[in-house]
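Lay summary. Proteins are chains of building blocks that fold into shapes, and those shapes determine what they do. In this project we predict the shape from the chain. Here is one chain we studied, written as its sequence of building blocks.
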Amino acid sequence: MNYRQRMKDLREDNDLTQEQVGKTINKSQQGYNHIETGRAELKIEDLIKLCDLYNVTADYLIGRSNQRN
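And here is the predicted shape, written in a compact code that computers can read:
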């Protein structure tokens, strides 16, 4: 599984909108959508914020591990 799909799955599992997650990483809904759909790359500082938001490891979020913590 690629990290974009994992980002979407985590967002949906937590009943969050793209706008809500975007605010967490200081992006607009459209800016976050571009990351989730592959039109923009995920910056390392945003990766860290998403890991904190979802309480998962970076390895889990980027698909290197199936263990959340």
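What the prediction tells us: The chain has one domain: 3-61.
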